[in-house]
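Is nicotinamide-adenine-dinucleotide placement plausible here? Inputs below.
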Amino acid sequence: MAGMWFVTGAAGFIGSNVVEHLLRAGETVVGFDNFATGTRKNVERLQRAGSRFTFVEGDIRDAATLERSAQGAGAVVHLAAQVRVQESFRDYAYNNAVNVDGFLNALKAAAAARARAFIYASSCAVYGDNPALPLRETSDVRPLSPYGVSKLANEGYAAVLDPELAETTLVGLRFFNIYGPWQDARGAYAAVIAKWLEACLRGERPVMFGDGSATRDFCFVDDVARLIAGVGRTNRKRPHGIYNVGTGEKTTLTELFAALADALAASGKRLAFDSPRGEPWRAGDIVHSLADVTRARAELGFAPATDIRAGLGRILALQHGIGR
Ligand SMILES: NC(=O)c1ccc[n+]([C@@H]2O[C@H](COP(=O)([O-])OP(=O)(O)OC[C@H]3O[C@@H](n4cnc5c(N)ncnc54)[C@H](O)[C@@H]3O)[C@@H](O)[C@H]2O)c1
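Reply from A.M.:
I modeled the complex. Tokens:
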């Protein structure tokens, strides 16, 4: 593909994995991030991965810097966002500035660069607690937080602005529970896999909310990176689309713990406990979540290939240097 890749949120979890994948494929990448939740450690990891990577420290709310940095981009991957649901209630103006204004700045920067593709992160949060599982892109949306509203606004803007962007394919990805190495384990609402792994590796019993029957659709980040790389290499303009990104498989929290214990055992680590420590379910948390990924499979060639045990094993090997 002509032109470099421009990736916002490159210091974050998904962003750093996507950039690493692109660099390994020999692509040239400019990463952009302001370290709101991303880390310098992730950027250093990318800088070690090769000379085809340039990093710009900047804020997506600063339209001029963003546009300048994205010059020459063949594909823009927009992952930077205010990602914390609770924070979006506490400071909804900030959430809106980053997730809506920042999104529009990124879209404008892609148009100015005449990028062939603009791929952006939406979220399963747009569905709220819609119980009609598995969720399809045509299912009712009813976001329950300013965060979910801001992601839905991104999709709405992309749909109405698509005809204005004659040369740019716009693709919105509704991520379900993406997991993998370098995911943030800090904070009460951090992703369950990162939190549980850290606890187990410290020899502490992880905390499970509810009775273990809650379910999630966990999708390994390498599968997401491969999807994004494929979409970014696209050559023809396609109409704006939104796509669920999950596996279509549900995992209960009890099954997750068993898979984690197995992956640790396969890496030579035995746990001193055989179950997580139970705490009452947290009001407001969604109990069940499951994607129907038929559309992404059919239209984008999405093929999630990593099952939960394999994915957990990869985290242990890559991030913690144990096993395999
Ligand atoms: N991880 C998941 O399961 C999941 C699920 C649904 C949606 N998403 C979306 O995927 C994207 C990536 O999420 P992630 O899990 O990697 O989270 P993350 O927090 O690791 O990554 C987000 C990145 O955006 C950066 N950022 C925030 N505000 C910025 C600003 N004003 N200017 C420049 N950079 C800024 C952060 O520093 C961080 O590096 C986000 O848009 C998120 O909403 C993730």
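Short version: The pocket of nicotinamide-adenine-dinucleotide is lined by residues 8-9, 11-15, 33-38, 59-61, 79-83, 98, 102, 121, 123, 175, 177-178, 184 (CB under 6 Å).
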